[in-house]
Amino acid sequence: MSLASVIRSEHDLLVPTYDRQKVLFEKGRGVFLWDTRGYAYLDFLSGIGVNALGHRHPAIQRALRQQASRLIHVSNLFFHPYQAELARRLTRISGLDRAFFANSGTEAWEGALKLARAYARSVSTNGHRPKWRILALDHSFHGRTMGSLATTGQAKYRDPFGPLVPGVSFVRFNDVGDLERQLDASVCAVCLETIQGEGGIRPVTADFLRAARELTRKSGALLLLDEIQCGLGRTGRYFAYQHYEVEPDIVTVAKPLAAGLPLAAILTTRRVARAIDPGMHGTTFGGGPLVCRVAIEFLRVLEGSLAHVNEVGDYFREQLEALKRQSGSVVEVRGMGLMLGMELDSSRLAQEVVVQLLRRRILINRTSETVLRFLPPYIVEKKHVDRVVRALAEALPGTRRRPGLPRRPTSLRRSQR
Ligand SMILES: Cc1ncc(COP(=O)(O)O)c(C=O)c1O
Fold first, then answer.
1. pLDDT confidence of residue 407
2. Is 202 in a helix, a strand, or coil?
3. If both were cysteines, with which of 92, 131, 175, 357 could 188 make a disulfide (CB 3.0 to 4.6 Å apart)?
4. What is the pTM assigned to this prediction?
């Protein structure tokens, strides 16, 4: 099957939601993907942060094979051995007490919003309207379903689908004064990504996050952190909020949780979880034996990977900072661990750089128009970073070509699979 025929078929058969890069992948291993012509690509996007252990990780393959040969799905009407075990591991690393399993980031976020409303109702006293308003942040992204869209602070995602869920207001990013002004007694939840992903790899400031924690504690609102992109080791700690020493009431995780299979989780406190009774919330697929078993394996491998994420992440960041010093087109380097962004001074340049890197068989993407986003797998090594940095040096105006960069990168030749 050729790329051209797949493009034609998709054009005729799919709802046109995606503007895909013209590459047809058929196989992956480690930090590399191979297209159908046999060319190897260095994967610095890992399926938007999903393939955190790279492709075909042996421990994941083993767990997947073993479990697939035993039991894949039973529904949440029955028990299986792995949900509680996965919840035990997630609560231990997060400092929270309870878990609920869903299938995608947006579904977990919807559940988190429902939980916040249910909690507000459960603690409201006779005669008082329960707290119900939700504060989210400008430039945020929480997913594509109606509640997630309603809390997403970017007009381009929201506008085509209104009217959305009512009761949501947006606070200016990292603006403590604006948060103070808007957080009144009617607010049941303050929502934020600890590091905004789609919004351009923007970490929330420690001042803002600590203020959000203090103000919500005083008012009785909940603090909801969306760590779907920045959680589970991506920043060099299990959770990005652990860099800030803040304890949230609800956290959502998804992307890397089952190393490529669809699985998400809501984590919360014992106190908040008490607001939910059987039948109030649920899902058919969420937390099945196959995905939970693989996620347990992911967390086991993750435990030994955090030091590596920190080491390579620091190295990568230093290299990107060095490029910034050379090129006037680089506005800022942001992020933590292996969640890094490089903001350029024009969206056209950012797009061109992504295309140039793709020509050199390196996968990254552009987010928020001007930001190059890097989400490599946690198994990436310094030599892979060097290759990306050399390619960036060639693509960015004003940078010196790095010694050792072949005119025609070896990756352009067919690699052995
Ligand atoms: C921070 C954040 N929240 C929510 C989502 C939605 O996740 P999903 O696409 O799995 O529904 C994403 C996806 O990119 C995300 O980055």
1. 42
2. strand
3. 131
4. 0.95
